[in-house]
Hints:
Elements: H1 3-33, H2 57-65, E1 78-84, E2 89-94, E3 98-103, E4 109-114, H3 117-125, H4 133-169
Antiparallel strand pairs: 1-2, 2-3, 3-4
Helix pairs in contact: 1-3, 1-4
Amino acid sequence: xxxxxxxxxxxxxxxxxxxxxxxxxxxxxxxxxxxxxxxxxxxxxxxxxxxxxxxxxxxxxxxxxxxxxxxxxxxxxxxxxxxxxxxxxxxxxxxxxxxxxxxxxxxxxxxxxxxxxxxxxxxxxxxxxxxxxxxxxxxxxxxxxxxxxxxxxxxxxxxxxxxxxxxxxx
Length: 170
């Protein structure tokens, strides 16, 4: 079998195999690129009073626990704190994808919203399906995409190389 015909066959079948995971990566990647433009994907950051946070961790936990839908009972229910001094805000991200934004000075709740970008990110990297899917599914898809790029480049350049070789003979 000639390399060029093997190349075409490999290019076709690898494309078919990775089509669905690649479509998922493309669509979720586009959504992640524009997540700050749409509040339904990621809640917009509010503005607090002070540029230096002055509330205690106890107060942060108390305020977060007062939000019923966040379902926070202890620090174990909180995924992370995102402190934005320039905005005067502390974002509390819960394990169940809720985001509570607190004023860094007063501790007042500025906003409570569902954070859907985390779900989209887990689809994008494959961890939604399984913890190791990013290594066992998305990494091979990335390698296959690189293979497709290389075989596609070869298929694209081959006619020009052959034409150049024919013209060189004369």
